[in-house]
Write a structure and sequence with these properties.
Strand content: 5-15%
Number of helices: 1
CATH class of the domain at 1-47: Alpha Beta
Distance between the termini: 92 Å
Bound molecules: zinc ion
Helix content: 10-25%
CATH architecture of the domain at 1-47: 2-Layer Sandwich
CATH topology of the domain at 1-47: Erythroid Transcription Factor GATA-1, Chain A
CATH superfamily of the domain at 1-47: Erythroid Transcription Factor GATA-1, subunit A
Number of strands: 2
Radius of gyration: 29 Å
Largest sheet: 2 strands, antiparallel
């Protein structure tokens, strides 16, 4: 039987390699591929038009209760 050296493919360069659990660049084969994928991802993210993420009108009007408990009098 073979030792379970499972090769995986790098998502960036599609190169098969033996994954190293201690590697900081998993699941990529190298730091370069990791960064390349990150850059691509960021580019795609920037390409999507975001709405303005800052809400300008913060109307903090809590709905007031129709009657305050003080007005409830049972004379
Ligand atoms: Zn790679």
């Amino acid at each position: 039987m073979k030792p379970s050296n499972k090769n995986v493919r790098c998502p960036t360069c599609d190169k098969p390699f033996v994954p190293d659990p201690q590697s900081a660049v998993m699941p990529f084969c190298s730091e370069r591929c990791k960064l390349a994928d990150l850059h691509r991802w960021m580019k795609e993210d920037i390409g999507i038009p975001h709405g303005s993420s800052e809400p300008e009108d913060q109307e903090d009007e809590a709905p007031s209760p129709p009657m305050s408990p003080r007005e409830w009098r049972f004379d």
